[in-house]
Fold each of these.
Amino acid sequence: MSRTATTGGLIAVAALALTACSPVTTLEPYAASDGVRVVWDEDDTSIRGENVLLLTAEAGAEARMVGGLTNLTSEATEITAAFSDGTLIDTFPLEAGETLLLDGEATRDVLIEASPVAPGENASVVFTTPTLGAVEVSVPVLDATLAEYEDYVP
């Protein structure tokens, strides 16, 4: 057997061995866009938020929360969102099996009187449910720099 064939075989075996050691990260839940995931328990995501973010022109200006809230349990629940200083954003009732889109349009438009931070920063938001308690999440705050958000910045 030639030296080239032996070397090629060893490289193939090494690549296969290293591939087997690498975790499959595509199976891990992640925020698929600019927003963040809201979960109370990584092992039970039956109640969660997906792609949650705030849109505003500047700190202190009106803001809009967008994203989605999901309740995959068999009972109705509600999710309350508030800034970490206690300022209420909104309360969202969710029926069993429901996903509520905070889309700034017909489904649910969540306008906030004043953004606590400027675009490019993160706002500390506390999400609460009656059964799971509270979880604090750093929610990205964006402006109309990205064309897909132009129509949603208040």
Amino acid sequence: MNPLELISAAPWKRVAFTTYALSLSFFEAVLLDALLRSGGRNALILSDPEDDPALAHRD
């Protein structure tokens, strides 16, 4: 089942996504849009900070 089918499968109110390769533009344009259209309002994204140097901890 792909993420869009899963989002459409139920009227989710809260969701959590995990990813190694975070693409906020994809999340907002595709997944969040579908979630909002189905009535969802709360989304949590857990991402690997090592994937994006801007998010990685700097020593």
Amino acid sequence: MSMRNRLSALLATVGLAAGLVVTLAGPAGAATPHCHGTSSVHVLGNGYNEYDVMPTRTPNDMNWRCVLAIGDGYVGDQYYAVWYLQRSLHACYGQEIAIDGKYGPQTAEAVKNVQRFHNSVQDAGLAVDGVYGPNTAYYMEYQNTLGRCWTKT
């Protein structure tokens, strides 16, 4: 094998190894798990029984540090996570989207609108990427079982 071919093979091997390391490491946000359920908190207020519902890592675990993005939903517990998110986007922010449990382009655009809103009103510093993640969840309002909107902050 010529020196040139050996060098090419070495560079290809190093490049492949470097690419593999980057692929395995991934972006910092990749470590955040996707939402696969919802949790509800029983609230006694004004004599009414209310349940505040929001997407969470797993059903009833109260851990809202999770992600929903295009392609999520459709079936199972993740369907409900997306469905409740869409319900809140519609009721609390006036987003005209289908409430169908499918995180598609309309839902992503609605989340971008919410991210822009909180950046302008609260100087939230949210990435306007259409991904529902822990930072967006922190600022968002959610519709409860009596139709009222509430926020965690």
